Amino acid sequence: MHKPKRRAPTFWKDGPNDPSVLRGELGRRFLSAFVSDFARKGRRAIEQLRRHRRQDYLRLALALLPKEFRIKEVELAEVSDEELAESLAAIRTLVKQQEKERSSIGTSLAKIDSDTPSPD
């Protein structure tokens, strides 16, 4: 037999025991404690992470980068052919630079992996 879902009593809604209010308070307190702890020990913890768990250090660094970049919208009708050609050339140059950086990062990561002792 199907049992109906239990709902929180209506007196909880927007009250001091409302789960969403409690989660918000818990989150606020956690972040406050985290910021305080990071202010005291953060630099040292990051240095230790970089030395002992390089793969996690790189994951952290990548996680902090923006997922997307905001680009100013420009009407193409406002851009001359010369400006468009210059922009395209600059983009091609940037793409080549990024490809070089990626290949050097890949080489660096491979070196890090080969230098990192196995956890065996």
Structure characterization notes:
The protein is mostly helical and 120 residues long. The chain has 2 domains: 47 residues; 44 residues. The chain contains 3 helices and no strands. It starts with 18 loop residues before the first helix and ends in a 5-residue tail after the last helix. The model has no long low-confidence stretch (mean pLDDT 80).
Name the helicity range. Answer: 55-70%
Beta-strand residue fraction: under 5%
Rounded mean pLDDT is 80
Task: State the separation between the terminal residues, measured CA to CA.
Answer: 52 Å
Give, in order, the helices and strands: HHH
Contiguous runs where pLDDT drops below 50 for at least 5 residues: none
Most strands sheet: none
What is the domain total for the residues? 2
> Which structural class fits the helix and strand makeup?
mainly alpha
The total count of helices amounts to 3
Total strands:
0
Q: Write down the overall geometry.
A: extended
Rg to the nearest angstrom? Answer: 25 Å
Q: What would the keywords be for this entry?
A:
67% helix; 0% strand; extended; 120 residues; mainly alpha; 3 helices
Concise account of the structure shown:
The protein has 120 residues and is mainly alpha-helical. It is 67% helix and 0% strand.
